[in-house]
Design a protein that fits this description.
Layout: E1 2-4, H1 10-21, E2 25-29, H2 34-46, H3 50-59, H4 61-67, E3 74-77, H5 84-98, E4 104-108, H6 120-138, E5 141-147, E6 173-179, E7 185-192, E8 205-210, E9 215-218
Parallel strand pairs: 1-5, 1-6, 2-3, 2-4, 4-5
Antiparallel strand pairs: 6-7, 7-8, 8-9
Helix pairs in contact: 2-3, 3-4
């Protein structure tokens, strides 16, 4: 799970992971439409600003399509409120297309997934249980993006207690993210079943971040 406040950089980090891992990926982009995601991918792959990337999609479609070939390992679902049944269908479609289950499944965001009814937080907890089952059945890495309460500022990242809906029990790894005053992206391990973690959010790694051009890189000291 990658958790953070709205606009903190969760989707940028998830997209960077999906592009750079280059493994068969199923990406549930419920929070962002196809045009915006295409613009973001083009920006991240070409080092253009998002504004420049959008113009390129319109005026240089051949060049844009060539650059976006680097996303061909990703199968996208842009349903704005997919149900658990919809997600299961997409996984089966992926297997039919690729001949193998996805190795990475990205869910952006948890709150957008519908199980057909029920109170919001209980619905999210049920979704997390189903995603755990999905991970075991497919042997895929399942990456879930989720919100933290805006009442917590974090130092520098929101603590584990800020995660909405009490859904932190199941993920093996939870990182929270936040943008710093200098423009970096801070990433803090709040829970790590196989390594060090700090639930306070105060132990972080800092990445170079520029949201305008979708730049995300290691900070070289």
């Amino acid at each position: 799970m990658i958790a953070g406040q709205p606009g903190a950089g969760k989707s940028t980090l998830a997209l960077a992971l999906a592009l750079r891992m280059r493994v068969p990926t199923l990406y549930f982009s419920a929070d962002t439409g196809a045009h915006t995601m295409g613009m973001r991918c083009l920006s991240m792959l070409s080092n253009k600003t998002q504004e420049e990337a959008e113009l390129s999609l319109q005026k240089e479609p051949a060049w844009s399509n060539k650059v976006l070939q680097d996303t061909r390992h990703i199968m996208w679902s842009f349903d704005s409120s997919p149900t658990l049944e919809d997600m299961d269908t997409e996984v089966k479609a992926f297997e039919e297309l690729w001949g193998t289950p996805p190795m990475l499944i990205v869910v952006d965001n948890l709150i957008d997934i519908s199980d057909g009814g029920g109170e919001e937080f209980s619905q999210m907890r049920q979704t997390m249980k189903e995603l755990k089952y999905l991970a075991r059945m497919t042997n895929a890495a399942v990456l879930v993006l989720h919100h933290t309460s805006e009442a917590y500022d974090g130092n520098p990242c929101p603590p584990r207690s800020a995660i909405q809906g009490k859904v932190s029990q199941l993920p093996g790894l939870i990182c929270s993210v936040a943008q710093t005053a200098t423009g970096d992206l801070a990433v803090a391990p709040l829970k790590n079943r196989y390594g060090k973690a700090d639930p306070s959010g105060s132990t972080a790694t800092f990445l170079v971040f520029n949201g305008e051009s979708m730049l995300l890189a290691d900070r070289v000291s």
